[in-house]
């Protein structure tokens, strides 16, 4: 059984999907508290699209099958943490999956005044090396994204941009496959990441600006 292929669908369009069945991969996985990265967390891992669940001690090698690029991995760290999903591409040597506490995420959402809407998702990002701004596709006309920026300790920032070592949360993200754009301040480059927003989990992006 291979993980699910991510692809868009639209009315009056035909979606073409090409599956390349490859040999099993081996990657170094690490599941940790997003704000205590030195402390691995035990979790249940699942390649999205497969029913197989792997009990994981927090840090070690994982062998898995993949026929999709990109593909998603899900980590569940218990009732205190939100379920996290990350998007992976290619043959990653190292896979880091940050988990965030439910109470922290609730406090962040409350400070923003972003009441949870049915059928919407949450996107989290952790950005190293650069101050940045973020935007996302999928919103209706006149609808504004509910973005909160936070610092490296998880404290809410009262700014319209993020800081190096911190991150962002997008609440009530439009459901389905969307694209998040990260704009490093002072650079003409833009980093794009495909995400899938759903209510049951948070989709996590980790990114470092390689300069």
What distinguishing features does this structure have?
single chain; 211 residues; mainly beta; nine-stranded mixed sheet; 5% helix
Distance between the amino and carboxyl termini: 39 Å
The number of E-state strands comes to 16
| Rg for CA atoms | 17 Å
Q: What percent strand?
A: over 45%
Assign the structural class, choosing from mainly alpha, mainly beta, alpha/beta, alpha+beta, or little secondary structure. Answer: mainly beta
Shape: globular
Mean pLDDT: 87
SSE pattern, N- to C-terminal: EEEEEEEEHEEEEEEEE
Total number of helical segments?
1
* Proportion of helical residues: under 10%
Written account of the structure:
There is one protein chain. By secondary structure, this protein is mostly beta strands. The protein contains 1 helix and 16 strands. A hairpin with a 7-residue loop joins strand 6 and strand 7. The radius of gyration is 17 Å and the shape is globular. The N and C termini lie far apart (39 Å). The mean pLDDT is 87.
Compose a concise summary of this entry.
The protein has 211 residues and is mainly β. The chain contains one helix and 16 strands.
């Amino acid at each position: 059984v291979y993980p699910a292929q991510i692809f868009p669908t639209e009315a009056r369009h035909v979606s073409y999907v090409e599956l390349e069945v490859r040999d099993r991969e081996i990657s170094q996985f690490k599941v940790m508290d997003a704000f205590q990265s030195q402390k691995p967390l035990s979790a249940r891992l699942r390649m999205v699209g497969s029913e197989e669940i792997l009990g994981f001690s927090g840090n070690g090698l994982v062998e898995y099958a993949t026929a999709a690029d990109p593909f998603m991995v899900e980590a569940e760290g218990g009732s205190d943490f939100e379920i996290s999903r990350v998007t992976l591409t290619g043959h990653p040597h190292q896979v880091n999956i940050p988990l965030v506490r439910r109470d922290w995420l609730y406090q962040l959402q409350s400070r923003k005044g972003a009441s949870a809407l049915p059928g919407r998702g949450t996107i989290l990002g952790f950005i190293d090396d650069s101050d940045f701004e973020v935007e996302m596709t999928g919103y209706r006309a006149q609808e504004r994204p509910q973005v909160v920026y936070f610092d490296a300790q998880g404290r809410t920032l009262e700014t319209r941009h993020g800081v190096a070592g911190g991150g962002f949360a997008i609440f009530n993200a439009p459901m389905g496959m969307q694209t998040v754009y990260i704009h490093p301040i002072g650079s003409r480059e833009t980093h794009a990441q495909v995400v899938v927003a759903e209510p049951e989990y948070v989709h996590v992006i980790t990114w470092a600006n390689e300069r």
